């Protein structure tokens, strides 16, 4: 019997070199990178734990700290947290510190901190994003992170794997977000708890890296520990930007790997999807909820604010104007994405359509600044969660969809299938 990607990656990282591991084994693994953000990252408690252990950071070059949720700070408390995070990085001589650079997961991949086959832990549940680069990324709490900082190792149970096969070509106006929502609707919000989802098939093979990052990012919304996509030519081309020439085919799954479940989907049957309040697995076809009026449309976050997302929205919105009374907020996924879209005129197209361009930040995604919803308001968003009160008031409602669907909805003022106004463009 062969091995899944999770089993291969965890075997390579095992503190007991050269062993094979299987699903449900509990092993000690060496951590390749440790990422902390400003929400659950550096804290006095971590300093206390390091002091109690009489330890310092095991390898400063493997630690990355990113202030993204509270940037730019909206109040004194947020400013104090960002200052503490910044000072902590300086005090502990962590050179890889980023601020005002954008959501942490986009920054991690843009700065070359993610390589195939690595095990990366982060103090954010969407650390699973790194699976798009065939790395096993997973979220941990602050206490566990303290142990990783001190030792560079932690224990993990080898996850069972769900194979999600997608076959065929995507239809016009369908994006990776739609693939993700459809998969989650089948699995349920807890259907992959402490498991890995391996996305595969020719549909997935054809996705560009921006789309793969969206897909892996959302894996945790089905409860998954990781969302992995095999290493291939698209991965290699992406890594060339960072001077990485090593190949990583050895971490790809074996043909006879043991999967707990195998799901099969036909991409040609997929239409634009939307997750309705207040669960990510409450998914319907966009056309089934086209009567729902919105107040705000949001394009951004570590899920839906990348270059391809903004380009797709701008292509659809060019020459159009958003509906009267609708707020269209756009937050590029990083400063790098912001700058590229600015230079290429993408932000101008969006602004001309009526969008408000925001800083690269996590603020609106979790309702702490830059687009918080009032009581009774409805938002359609490219973000990853629509829990009760996620983006503001507990009496607001959040629908999740692709950048194309969000842009189309901003034009009409109602949740709208982008095919209805697209003129036939296809990303």
TrEMBL record:
The enzyme's E.C. designation: 4.2.1.33
Cofactor: [4Fe-4S] cluster
Cofactor binding note from Swiss-Prot or TrEMBL: Binds 1 [4Fe-4S] cluster per subunit.
Pathway assigned in UniProt: Amino-acid biosynthesis; L-leucine biosynthesis; L-leucine from 3-methyl-2-oxobutanoate: step 2/4
Family the UniProt entry places it in: Belongs to the aconitase/IPM isomerase family. LeuC type 2 subfamily.
Assembly: Heterodimer of LeuC and LeuD.
Alphabetical keyword list: 4Fe-4S, Amino-acid biosynthesis, Branched-chain amino acid biosynthesis, Iron, Iron-sulfur, Leucine biosynthesis, Lyase, Metal-binding
Superkingdom in the source lineage: Bacteria
NCBIfam families: hacA_fam (TIGR01343), IPMI_arch (TIGR02086), PRK00402.1 (NF001614)
Gene symbol of the encoding locus: leuC
Catalyzed chemical reaction(s): (2R,3S)-3-isopropylmalate = (2S)-2-isopropylmalate
Name of the protein described by the UniProt record: 3-isopropylmalate dehydratase large subunit
Lineage: Bacteria, Bacillati, Bacillota, Clostridia, Eubacteriales
Domain Aconitase/3-isopropylmalate dehydratase large subunit alpha/beta/alpha: 79-288
CDD domains: IPMI
Entry binding sites for [4Fe-4S] cluster: 302, 362, 365
Function: Catalyzes the isomerization between 2-isopropylmalate and 3-isopropylmalate, via the formation of 2-isopropylmaleate.
């Amino acid at each position: 019997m062969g091995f899944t990607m999770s089993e291969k990656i965890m075997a390579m990282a095992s503190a007991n070199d050269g062993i094979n591991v299987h699903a449900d084994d509990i092993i000690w693994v060496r951590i390749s990178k440790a990422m902390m953000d400003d929400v659950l990252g550096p804290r006095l408690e971590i300093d206390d734990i390091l002091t109690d252990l009489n330890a310092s950071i095991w390898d400063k070059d493997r630690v990355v700290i990113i202030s993204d949720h509270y940037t730019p700070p909206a109040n004194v408390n947020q400013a104090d947290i960002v200052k503490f995070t910044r000072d902590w990085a300086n005090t502990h001589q962590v050179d890889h510190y980023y601020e005002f650079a954008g959501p942490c997961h986009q920054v991690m991949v843009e700065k070359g901190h993610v390589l195939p086959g690595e095990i990366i832990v982060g103090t954010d549940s969407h650390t699973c994003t790194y699976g798009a680069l065939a790395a096993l990324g997973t979220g941990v709490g602050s206490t566990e992170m303290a142990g990783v900082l001190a030792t560079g190792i932690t224990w993990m149970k080898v996850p069972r794997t769900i194979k999600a096969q997608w076959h065929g070509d995507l239809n016009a106006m369908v994006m990776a977000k739609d693939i993700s929502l459809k998969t989650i609707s089948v699995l349920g919000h807890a259907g992959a708890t402490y498991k890995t989802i391996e996305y595969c098939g020719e549909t997935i093979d054809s996705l560009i890296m921006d789309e793969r990052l969206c897909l892996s990012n959302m894996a945790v919304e089905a409860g998954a520990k990781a969302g992995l996509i095999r290493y291939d030519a698209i991965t290699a081309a992406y890594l060339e930007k960072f001077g990485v020439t090593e190949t990583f085919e050895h971490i790809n799954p074996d043909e006879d790997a043991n999967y707990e479940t195998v799901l099969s989907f036909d991409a040609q049957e997929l239409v634009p999807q939307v997750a309705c309040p207040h669960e990510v697995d409450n998914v319907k076809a966009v056309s089934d909820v086209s009567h729902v009026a919105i107040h705000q449309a949001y394009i951004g976050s570590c899920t839906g604010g990348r270059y391809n997302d903004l380009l797709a929205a701008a292509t659809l919105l060019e020459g159009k104007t958003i509906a009267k009374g609708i707020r269209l907020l756009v937050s590029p996924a990083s400063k790098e994405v912001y700058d590229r879209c600015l230079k290429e005129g993408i932000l101008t197209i969006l602004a001309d359509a009526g969008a408000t361009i925001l800083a690269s930040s996590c603020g609106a995604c979790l309702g702490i600044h830059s687009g918080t919803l009032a009581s009774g308001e409805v938002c359609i968003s490219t973000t990853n969660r629509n829990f009760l009160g996620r983006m503001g008031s507990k009496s607001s409602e959040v629908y999740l969809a692709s950048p194309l669907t969000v842009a189309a909805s901003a034009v009409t003022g109602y949740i709208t299938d982008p095919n209805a106004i697209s003129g036939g463009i296809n990303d």
